[in-house]
Write a structure and sequence with these properties.
By secondary structure, the protein is mainly beta. The protein contains two helices and 47 strands.
Length: about 500
């Protein structure tokens, strides 16, 4: 008798399903690891260091954005930090006061010498029209065997050490003069040669490198070369004035002073003492010491009756009359009365900023409506807000001049300045009090998380969590700007941009 089919008492595994589950779990694990790595990278980015010069006990060192000491203050001369995001610190030492000779070196955050192999290594300093000192970005001047070259902050050679001199073009960024065989040329911050060293002198044409350069050859003849290396005017003029007029130039040729176009054709040769700027239809010009507007055919658009005149957009001009500023249209009609000591126009926000004799600022919109009056603290077009001190309180507005809270506009902050019963404290994003209302004055949180607080005439600092870093012990009445990183406060000379303790 045949027997029936026998069934196993233990269930058999479905290997296909098992493999599928294993693959699914592996995918989940990989996904979790990827997400974790992303957050770790973001955390690393958020914790990337920035560096600042420190001055303590008559010595110089370096701190980071947390206020931690990176290089102990041990150097007699001020350190230079060309880029605050890079740990490249330049030191000057062994100075001989009699001969003027000195040594330099670059160090990292471990106080180790880096970028070696040169006799000298220095930042290329410059100064703007407000006497603020700054350094060319990501480029260093090096000297070797008596000649100069350029490297970047990673040590990559940008320009070989074969030049007699390398200096910044006064007041103009991304413009570095090179000298060779007693002739000048010009390079940008990447070491790219814009103008070969063939000229007796090179000057800026306008206020930025984008507007080009005036070249003077060995025969004292003037020409123009653009930022893109293109020769715009040949060196055949007796003079070219440092006035940027777009595609026009104020030149002197064969004793005749005139405005020419980019083809060298004469546009204006009479009726003006000076040309100050280009407008939509012509030029702002000066006649008998007063400003007006003239078009490219020589026809007067606005009579020269103003002490100053500047077009801010088509048919809108900021003018000065009787030592006061106002706004007029192209027909001379007064749109804003001449009541202000200064008026400027902020293109990004499309707002006029008008200052009066009492140091108050009025914000005026494009419809010529006065929207806010107070002491202007900041116009931040990146984050789209205005900060004013109005009626002895700090207030915030969007670029439409609608009032906002500091919690609404300062999205990255953890603490927010608050005032109650005449005293200042700080709240969190939900409005909960983090720092009690005990201070006479205070600042909003800076980008590194610190706030400055004032009590009984002295200043101190609090961190992002509301903890006291340093009690109010500093008298900073002579400081133009109050700012803290950790327990260190910004020095009196803000042009030097160093932190210290008194």
């Amino acid at each position: 008798m045949s027997r029936g089919k026998r069934y196993e008492t233990e269930p058999k595994l479905n290997y296909q399903k098992v493999i599928a589950v294993i693959i699914a779990l592996a995918v989940i694990v990989m996904f979790v690891l990827i997400i974790r790595n992303i957050f770790n990278e973001k955390e690393k980015i958020s914790q990337s260091s920035e560096y600042f010069v420190l001055y303590s006990n008559e010595k110089w060192g370096v701190i980071n954005q947390l206020g931690e000491t990176v290089i102990a203050p041990s150097y007699r001369e001020m350190l230079v930090i060309p880029d605050k995001t890079k740990e490249v610190f330049l030191c000057t030492y062994d100075i001989n006061e009699e001969t003027g000779e000195y040594k330099t070196k670059a160090i990292n955050s471990k106080n180790e010498e880096i970028l070696t192999g040169y006799d000298k290594i220095e930042a290329i300093d410059n100064i703007d029209k407000n006497e603020n000192v700054w350094y060319e970005d990501n480029v260093l001047r090096v000297q070797k065997d008596g000649k100069y070259g350029l490297i970047d902050l990673n040590g990559k050679e940008l320009l070989p050490a074969e030049y007699d001199e390398i200096i910044g073009l006064n007041g103009i960024e991304n413009s570095i003069l090179i000298k060779k065989d007693d002739k000048y040329g010009l390079v940008n911050d990447t070491g790219s040669v814009i103008i070969e060293p063939n000229y007796k002198e090179i000057k800026n044409l306008g206020e930025t490198y984008r507007e080009g350069y005036i070249t003077i050859d060995e025969n004292d003849k003037y020409g123009v070369i653009g930022a893109t290396k293109m020769k715009l005017l040949d060196n055949k003029y007796d003079n070219i004035e440092q006035v940027y007029l777009s595609d026009y130039y104020l030149v002197t040729e064969n004793g005749e002073r005139k405005v020419i176009n980019s083809s060298g054709e004469t546009v204006l040769n009479s009726g003006f003492e000076q040309i100050s700027s280009k407008t939509e239809d012509g030029f702002i010009y000066v006649s008998q010491g007063l400003y007006g507007e003239i078009n490219t055919t020589g026809e007067v658009q606005i009579e020269p009756t103003y002490q100053d005149l500047k077009q801010v957009k088509n048919d809108v001009y900021i003018a000065k009359n009787n030592d006061r500023y106002g706004i007029i249209d192209n027909e001379g009609n007064t749109m804003i009365p001449f009541d202000y000591t200064l008026i400027t126009y902020n293109k990004d926000s499309k707002l006029f900023i008008a200052d009066d004799a009492n140091y108050n600022t009025t914000i005026i919109n494009e419809n010529y409506e006065s929207k806010i009056t107070g002491i202007l603290s900041e116009i931040n077009t990146t984050k789209s807000y205005i900060r004013m001190r109005v009626d002895d309180e700090y207030k915030y507005y969007d670029l439409s001049c609608q009032e906002k809270t500091n919690i609404e506009v300062l999205e990255d902050n953890t603490l927010f300045l608050s005032k109650k019963d005449g005293k200042y404290g700080f709240v969190d994003k939900k409005g909960n009090v983090v720092v009690d209302y005990i201070y006479d004055d205070a600042t909003e949180q800076n980008e590194y998380g610190f706030v400055a607080v004032k009590k009984d005439g002295k200043w101190g600092a609090i961190d992002k969590d509301g903890k006291v870093v340093v009690e109010p012990i500093y008298n900073l009445e002579n400081n133009l700007k109050i700012d803290f990183i950790g327990r260190w406060h910004l020095g009196e000379d803000i042009n030097m941009n160093y932190y210290c303790e008194k």
